[in-house]
Specification:
Strand 7 and strand 8 form a beta hairpin. The longest helix has 13 residues. The protein has one domain: 2,3-Dihydroxybiphenyl 1,2-Dioxygenase, domain 1. The chain contains two helices and eight strands. The chain starts with a strand and ends with a strand.
């Protein structure tokens, strides 16, 4: 359904190091980093799309996070959710919802939420039963 998703950053180097660590447990690996262009991209090792991109604002303006916007990444199991959330917090992210079941979404929904280093809201979730 999606070709790519792009999040803005104010510090490309910091964002690259952060997402390299956080996405690794999900099998999402860096595909490119074009510092001269101000962006980097990741993809799942088994799929060509969608791409996850992080970049400096193209218009040269100041990066800002949205209110009500969130990127949710799917994990294969609950352990990956826990692992990604823990790595994110270790890398300086702000907790926005500890790992756990969210039965208001559906009985097996297990998710964790954090704000990345640019205050973008990220969810790591698993839809599978334990």
């Amino acid at each position: 359904m999606f070709s790519h998703v792009n999040l803005g950053t104010k510090d490309l180097e910091q964002a690259v190091a952060f997402f390299d660590a956080v996405l690794k447990p999900l099998g999402i690996e860096q595909k490119f980093c074009q510092r001269e262009m101000g962006w980097a991209g990741w993809q799942h090792r088994d799929y060509p799309r969608p791409l996850f991109l992080v970049g400096l604002p193209v218009d040269g303006g100041t990066q800002s996070s949205g209110n009500g916007q969130m990127l949710a990444l799917q994990a294969g199991n609950r352990q990956q959710v826990d692992q990604c959330h823990a790595i994110a917090l270790t890398m300086g992210a702000r907790d926005d919802g500890a790992p756990g079941l969210r039965p208001q979404y559906h009985p097996d929904y297990y998710g964790a939420y954090f704000r990345d280093l640019d205050n973008n809201k990220i969810c790591i979730c698993c839809h599978e039963a334990e």
